[in-house]
Amino acid sequence: MRDHLAAHPDLRRLRHREQPGASNLPARTKTAPDDFMQAARVRAGDDGTLREMSDDQLGAAMRPGVLDDRARDRIATEADRRDREALLDRVRTGDLSAVADDDLAEAMRHGRAGDLARIAAEFDRRYPPSPCPRPRAAATPSRT
């Protein structure tokens, strides 16, 4: 550099430009925290994006508090869908005696025809129908 400056007397050495960080390259930026990255995925993505995200990622997206009501509703809808699918899987493959009454009632709302028959049989097992009493004869009004 000294030889170059000696060969070109019209140039001056500017030592502050030789310091680290004085170049025209941008400074390295930190990556955004994962919570904010997941929140950005929720805001920018479609419903398929939410299906791809894990429960932990959806929870991380909720943490920073940067989502609007629409995005929070989309996450709640996806969580409800996952809960419903898990319940229906339990009803389809598992022993119904271990499933709570409220869960069975919810499964009846969303189940298939075969599932409904199994659920109804389980309710009948739990709560056997009581015999119906005979209807009383209708009293005939007397004429006096």
Report on the structure:
56% of the residues lie in helices and 0% in strands. It is built from 7 helices and no strands. With 144 residues, it is mainly alpha-helical. The chain is rod-shaped and about 135 Å long. The longest helix is centred in the middle third of the chain and has 25 residues, at 69-93.
Taken as a percent bin, the fraction of beta residues is: under 5%
Q: Describe the sheet with the most strands.
A: none
Low-confidence stretches: none
Number of distinct beta strands: 0
Give the SSE order as H and E letters.
HHHHHHH
* Estimated radius of gyration: 35 Å
Q: Note the overall shape.
A: rod-shaped
Which class of secondary structure composition applies to the elements?
A: mainly alpha
Intertermini distance: 133 Å
Count of helix runs = 7
Could you give the topology of this structure?
Elements: H1 2-7, H2 34-44, H3 47-52, H4 55-62, H5 69-93, H6 101-110, H7 113-126
